[in-house]
Every structure is written in structure tokens, then in C-alpha cells.
Amino acid sequence: MSSYQEALKRQTKSAASRQSEKLTQIVQNFFAKAAHMIVQSRSSGTNSTHSAKASKWFNISLEDSDIPKEDLKLWKGKDIFSFQPLIIEVYLDLRDLTSDQTLILKGHRNAVNVSKSGKKSEIVLERWLLEFDLTSFDSENVELPLIYKRVIVQFRVLFTFLKLLPAFKLHENLMKDRMSGNSPLKVSSRVLDGSRSITSKGRIGLSKKILKSETDDHLKGKKFDPILTPVGALRCSLSYRKNCNFLLNDNETLLSSHFISMESQTQHIPQQPATSPVDNPKRANSLRITSVLNQSSSPSRDFSPARRTARTMSNTSVQPFKVGSMAASPPPSSRQTSERKNSTGTKPIPVTGGSKSNSSASLAALLRSQRNSFGTNDSASMLTGVSLPKSVVSSSLGSYPNSLPAGIPEHVLVSSGSSGTPKFLSSFGSKLHRGSTTSRNNSLEGNTGPNLISNPMLKKTKRSGSDSSAFSTVFSDMEPGSGLYVDDEIGDFVKMLDSKPDLRFASLSPQNSNSSADPLNRFQSLRDHHNMFGDNLSASLIQYNNPFRKGSYSSVVESRSDSSSSAYRQGASEFSASLPMGHSHHDISSTPLKEGTTADLISESVEPGEPYESHHSPFRSTSSHGALQFGSLKPGPGSASVAPLSTLAYAQMHKDDNGTDISSTPIPSHEAMVQKVKSAISSSRRNSRVGNLPPNVQDFRGLSSSVPTHVPHEPRRLYGIDKQIASTGTSSATPSGFKDHKLVVHSQFNEHAIADDDDEDDDGDELHSSSKKYGHHDDEDEELLFAMSDMVFANKYAHN
Amino acid sequence: MEFSLTIVSDLDTVLDNTRGILWTIFFNRLFGPITPKNDYFLGVPYPKVVGATALEDLINSEATSMVKSLTDSPLSQDAAVFKSSIAIKFYERDRHAVCWETWTLRVNVINNRRYPAAPGERHDLDAYREVFENNLMEICDVVDAHKSHIPAITSMETSPFPYRILRQDSSGNSGTASVEYVATTDAGDVIVQSAAANTGVYGEEILRNGYNFIKKMLSE
Fold first, then answer.
1. Interhelix angle for A517-529 vs A552-560, to 10°?
2. Signal peptide: which range, if any (chain B) (predicted)?
3. Do β-strands A186-193 and A101-106 pair in parallel, antiparallel, or remain unpaired?
4. Cβ-based neighbours of A479, under 8 Å, separated by 6 or more
5. Closest listed residue to residue A81, CA positions, set A234, A236, A232, A237
6. How many contacts, defined by CB atoms under 8 Å, are there between A and B?
């Protein structure tokens, strides 16, 4: 071969190698730049000015990348053919959420309580996939400048598009919050190796639909046009949550807003004559107690995987919502009659008697201790539970979309069941006043609030178009001094519970004398609507210790009118059952109470639906959630707003001396029963469940402290470190992982292609990929010029 | 390639709305090395280029003129909606007469001075925001899907391709159309000429005038 030929050969070879080298650089920088751009747009890093090292690749200059070099080393090597897909997860970091804060996802019609603090470490908002797909290529398109130009355009689009996504809006809002005040939330992102499977243990993955009520897909996808090179295609695609309207609420705000919204919704309650302030506190007390009951019982519930989220949610936010509903709906008369007489106040009735839940004695003691430690409880604590997570409702209730998770009542109970009740109530009332002007249009309320919507009782109220007048009267009349009355009553109730744990109902029954004619009439009229419950009520009273016997539920209901104890039980069961179902308080009264105490209902995974009409069956899986259990109240004919069972019970216990109607619920002993049940439930739950206290239970320090908190270490372990995350899941164990990334590539980039978020995943070993030092292009400007020079010269005559 | 978008806004927001759309289009077509930044319209971020003062001035002047002409026209004081259009044309670097892309923005301006929205209900802003955001998404989709018609980039300037912004007001009266055009040189200079002319005439003439001017400038 002549030297000329050799020289030509060498030149050709070197030209070719130069070409391939440049192509390699383009591919490498595609990954790096895209990751850089995505992460930077979602990062909370300081806005540094453009440093000298700003990457100018693809004619777009970005600030220094926040991504640790370690994370991207997989895509810095020379062997672009072995590049794994690069995944970037953008997530909402919940790790700094405190226990008194509730995260809500606001939907079109409702809002859902997303995560109790500590339960889930993060919520995945977006998942980006970058890959170099070797199966698609364009062997005719070898013009590097052309490829470079297309990548330029791609990055222009990417930059524009990144800012239009919901996660960016959330990120911006959170950044503002962080600057102005303290926001524990932040949007972060991480880089993952796409060849590894992805697990979503301990976090809310992308595939998990939070707003279960919304029928359309919660995810959306976007696939960018692939850029074809001679050897492969550069692909960028994305799957993201459409709704990132996450709001953070202090439980206090939540409670008050819910309370207000519930007030506005409890329109079905007939206008009550001016209720005495005493009644209101009592009702509130009963509400709180109920929530306590629920609270304690929810932890013990076992949720089916399908209901996990619901359970989580119901556990979390059980809050004031119930308080509001209960306060609004219960018939004042019933309250004032039996409750007033019952000095024990709104102590939850340990309906379970003994079998499943903690003894009432323990509950009472717990409540007492709480009361002492409750201190000046502002309405916040009481109201915290208001935001009943709709998701809980919908998910847990299944076919019974209206049922409220048991969590609702729990919160209510929690807030009410302490010694701080009196002050609680007063602040509660004042909160209402304050809130009434401000939080009426609260987002929570807007769509009837998360809890409101999901609370069948409230729903009924809303549907019936009843006024919140009853509710508002109740609370508006509440005066600071009213709390005192409540406190005494609660204490009395607690004593009563302590003294006769098993005979609570019996002891209460004689006290149930409905002094007010109106509530009783109302109650009776309600009962007429629920014939099925009438027969079994008395039977259930006797058998209240027997969990969930068919037919006993109704009997419990029946007995409600007979005795305060029955009312309690009924109330409790109704409360647990009815919350999600938006029953009016009328319904509550007539709702068939599951056999046995509500605590039984709650503490065991008993299916509450049985004795009920068929549509109550969704409550089968009420396990572990007081909220769930409360869901099975049948929607009554009613106009009556959801009467907080605890309120009813409370009213029964402490009858209103002046005979004014507190609410239209004519069930004197109902509230008492409810409260008892709830307290039992909550106590049992508290003891059995770990760490399921709603965030707003802070007031119940005694309570919370008594419950061992479960620290979800797993999620952190999984996701604390990028590497760990990347290596999570051995490839063999997760068939849906990225072993075959082609599958991912060609399918719509969505969750199905990735390991199911809820799947159990093997913890991957550490990234074992050799950490060889990859070539690192330090001098990007040089590279840029080189690429551009090709473009300029090569395209002088080129056509595209 | 021709793309069209519809802008819906009211008299108070149309200026920023139009500016946002124009900027987004230019951001995606200024292929030279740029440093991006963001600006906002009703809370929706749109991209801009740092340092492109000439383009900034051009866009501002164009949008302002359009709005001014809408409001000044005596015929349109009672109209509920003002209509106008703005077009961006991109030309090949070497063959200035060849337009490889046209963006036509149909601007509908709600006459909220004559028919103001109720103070309690500002849902119209939400509507404008939504339309704006959809427009941005549309631009993204379009730009991403159509890349092959873009000529080769042969320069390192911010804007390797000359462009033109055309404006036409039609307040229901086609006879009073006025045209303003801007031509840019390769160096990014801006030439603004306004001429009241028939729509059929302006194209070539203005182009010729424009480039003559350019040549003049370049030779100086």
C-alpha cells in the first residue's frame, strides 16, 4: 500500500474514530445535561450565579449541576452501548413533617389526607427516563451536527416543559414557603440506575393513586421525540402525577376549617332553639371521645394491601372532622337529656368490654391522664381531626363510598377525651367563631372538605341541604365557660367507666331519660326509618360483649333510646359505622350497631357490614381503623346532619338541664354510647397499634407517650441513600425491574414497566457496578467548540 | 412549516400574554448559545434568554403597538372582543426570502374596559392562564415533533436565522390594516419599519427594504 493510501486510511480511520468519539460525547452529555436540567429545576439548592464551569453543552448554559458526580458516573463512561437507562425520580420529601402536621392532596371535588407523619417518607411526583436505545437507529443519519442540532432543540423544549409540570409548581410554592417561614416539605430528586428495580416501600410511589375517588388516571405521560443516531436513539420520557396540589396543614387549622365546613354542611339539622353552651361542649366532648376511641382502635386494624393507603390515611388524620360532624348533627335533646345526667361526661365507652379492646378502665385512666396533660388545648387539637382523608374513606369503604374511615371519629375522640376538654371546648367554640369567617371558604371546606365529603353523614347533610344552623348554633353558643361543665362530666364519666367497666351500658341506661321531647321525637322518627334495627337493639345490649353478631347491631341501636349505655354503644357503633357514610345523626341512631361494642368493631377485624343493610358491607375491612368501622352507618332518610356520635352520647350522658335542644338527634343515650365505644376503641388501639396516632394527638401527650411509636425505618433505609435506592431490589427478585429496559422503552413509560410501587421488593445490595473512573470531560467549552465546528463546516451545504 | 396559536386575554393582560408566547417561541428558535431564564405570566413560567436586549425590545414594542392599536381604534370601542394577529417568520440564513417557519398568533382580547368582569369573579384570569399554559404546551409539542425542517445551523450567533415579526390589526375592518415589520440582520440588529400597506404588498417590498438597510449597516 502506498504511503498515500496508508495515510488516507489512517485519516479515514481517525476521522471515523473522531466521529464516534464525538457521538459518544453527545450521548454522554445528553444524559448528563438532561439529568442536570431536570434535577436543577426541582432542586432546593441555592441559586448560584453562573459559574465558570457552567455547562454549555447543546447551546444552553446551566448552572453548576447539583447532582453529585457519583450519581452520574454510570453514564460518563466511554461505552455508550452499555449505558443503562437513567431514571430521575422527583419526589415530595415528607421526612421533615412533624406529627402535628397533616399533608393533604386537594382534588377537584375533595381533598384527601395523604400521609400521617412518619408513615411515608416521600411521595413520588415524577419519574423521568433517559435512555440510549440501541434498537432504534438511523444508519443514514450520520451527520453529527444534525444530531447536535436536534438535541439543542430537545433541550429547549425540555427546559420549557419542565416548568409547566405540576411538580414544578409545587416546588416553587414550597420554595416560597421555605423562604417565608418554615416548611418541612420540599421537592427533591434523585438519580437512579434504570436497570435496577424500583420499590416503593415506605413511600407513596408513582403508581399509587391518592385521590381514589377521581376516576380518570392520576398519571400522565410524555414522550419526547427520540433523537436517532447511527447507533442508537436518545430517548427521554416522563410519567408524572397530574395532581400535585399537596397542602400542608397544621392540625389545628385543619380541625377548625373542617369544623367550620361541617358546620355549614350540617344543614339538615333542624334549627335548634338556642342550645345551651353546656350542650355544645358536651357534644364536642363526645366527639372528641369518639375520636379517641377510633384512634386507639385503628392501630390494631389490619388492612388488606388494597386498603393500606386508606388505613394509613385514616390513621393519620383522624381528626376534627368527626368532631365537626358530630357536633353538628347530634340532636341536642338527646345530648342534653342523657348526657347531662351522666356525670361521666364524654368518656368513650369501652364498648368492647374486654374482649378486644382495652378495658374501659384503662381507657378511662388514659383519658384521665390525658386530661391532666391536656392543658389549654386549643381547638386546634380538637379540630385537627376534621380533615378526614377522603382517600381513606373511599379506599377503605370500597363499595361504600360514603363511609368515613374510622379515623375520623378517632380524632374527634382524641380531642375531646381529655381533661382539657373544657378549655378545649371553649377554644373550640372560639375557634369556630374565628374560623367561621375565615375558613368558610377554606379549601377543605370548599369541596365540602375532605372529611366532609367522605363523611356520609355530612354528605347526607349536604344533600339534604340542611343548614349548618344546628351546628352553628351548637358551637356559636359555646362559651368559654361551657368547658367547665364538660370537664366535670367527662370526669364523671371516666369514673363511671372505671367503676363498672362491664356494666357501663347497663349503668348508663337508667340514666338515659330523654328530658327533651323534641330530640326524642326526632329520634323516634328516625327509628321509624330503620326498622331493621329496632328489633335487635335490646338483644345487642345484652350481648354487647359479643363481637359482631349478626343482628345485634340493630339491637344496639334500639337500645339506644332505652339507656344511655345503649346509646353509647349505638352511638359508638354508629359513629364508627356512620362516619364515612354521611349518615345523619338520625341515621346514627338507627344504624345497626354491630354486635358488641364499637371497640369490638374497631379492635377486631370484624366486618361491621353484616348486620347492616347490604350496602354497609364495605366495612368488612374496618380492621384497624376506627374510621373504617364507623363507616357503616346507613344513610338515613335524613336530613339530619351527621350527628357526631360522641356528641350524641355525650348529650345523653349529660342531659341538658335547661332542656334546650342541642341538636335534632333524638337519641339521648346515643352519644354516650358512642363515646364509650370510642374511648374503648381508642384506648385499645392506642395500646395495640404502633405509631398510628394522628398527628394532632399532640395534645394528648399522655396518650401518645403511652403508645409505642413505630419508627418506619425501612423506608429510610431504602431511600436514604441514592445508591441504596439504586441498588434496591435484586434483579432476580423483581421481574418488572429494568432488567429488560427495552420493555420499558417501548411501552409507555409508566409504572407498569417499573416494579410495582407496592410490591415487596428485595433490598438490593449496594451498587456493585465497578466504580471505575470514567472519563470526565472537564473542559466542556472545548467539547462544545469541537461539536459546533463540525456543525458549521459540515452543514454548509447539507440539507436536513 | 406553519403553526398557529390562539391567545385569549383581556386588555390588561394581553400585553404580557403576548410577550410570553413570543418569548417562548423565540426561546425555542434561538439556537445559539444562550443562558435561559424564566419570566412569569399569571404565575405560569415561560422561558426567556438572558441578554437578548434587542429581541426584548422588539417583542415589547410589537406587543405594545398591537395593544395600542386595539384600544385606539375608534371603531372598536364597543366591541366585546378585539381581534388581532401577530406572526413570526423565520428565514433561512443564506436565502433570506425562504421562510422555513411561520408562527401565527391569533390574539383575542376581551374588552374588559367596556365590559368589565364582576369584581368578585375573576375566573377570566384563570381562563387566560389556562389558555396560556396550553399554548406553551402546544409550543413544546410542536417544536419537539418537528425538527427536520429546521435548516442547518451554521453560525454561533444567538439567532442563527433571521426572523420577522409581523403584525396585523383587524378590528373588524380589514381596510385599515397596518403592518409593522421588523427584520433582523445576521448580527441580531433590529430594524423597525412601519408602513401602512396592503397586506399583499408588504412582503417583498419590506423585505427588500429591510435587507437593503442591513447591507447599508453592514457596510458602515
1. 160
2. none
3. unpaired
4. A277, A426, A429
5. A232
6. 92
CB A418 within 8 A of CB A370: yes
Percent of chain A topping pLDDT 90: 10
- Which range (A354-368, A607-621, B68-82) has the least confidence? A607-621
pLDDT for res B46? 95
Q: How far apart are CA B52 and CA A354, in angstroms?
A: 77
> Per CB distance under 8 Å, which residues of B are interface residues toward A?
24, 27-28, 31-36, 38, 44-47, 133, 136-137, 139-140, 143-145, 147-156
The CA distance from A418 to A443, in Å, is 29
Nearest residue of B to residue A57, measured between CA atoms: B33
What pLDDT was estimated at residue A320? Answer: 41
> Is residue B116 within 8 Å of residue B125, measured between CB atoms?
no
* C-alpha cell belonging to residue A434: 374565628
Closest-approach residue (CA) in chain A for B138: A161
B56-59: Cβ within 8 A, 24+ apart = B57/B190, B58/B165, B58/B182, B58/B184, B58/B190, B58/B192, B59/B19, B59/B22, B59/B23, B59/B26, B59/B165
In angstroms, the CA A138 to CA A493 distance is 80
> Which candidate, A385, A344, A373, A239, places its Cα nearest to that of A675?
A344
**In sequence order, what are the beta bridge partners of A122?**
A93
A320: its cell numbers: 376534627
- Closest Cβ–Cβ partner in A161, A168, A795 for B140: A161
- Measured in residues, chain B has a length of 220
Residue A795 forms contact with B (CB below 8 Å): yes
Overall CATH class of domain A1-264: alpha beta
How far is A570 from A532, CA to CA, in rounded Å? 14
Asked if A164 and B153 come within 8 Å (Cβ–Cβ), the reply is no
Amino acid at A600: D
Domains of chain B listed by start with CATH number: 2-219 (3.30.900)
Would you list the domain boundaries of chain A? 1-264
CB-CB under 8 Å, B145 with A149: no
Residues of B in contact with A146 (CB under 8 A): 152
ipTM of the complex: 0.81
| CA gap B199, A739 in Å, rounded | 60
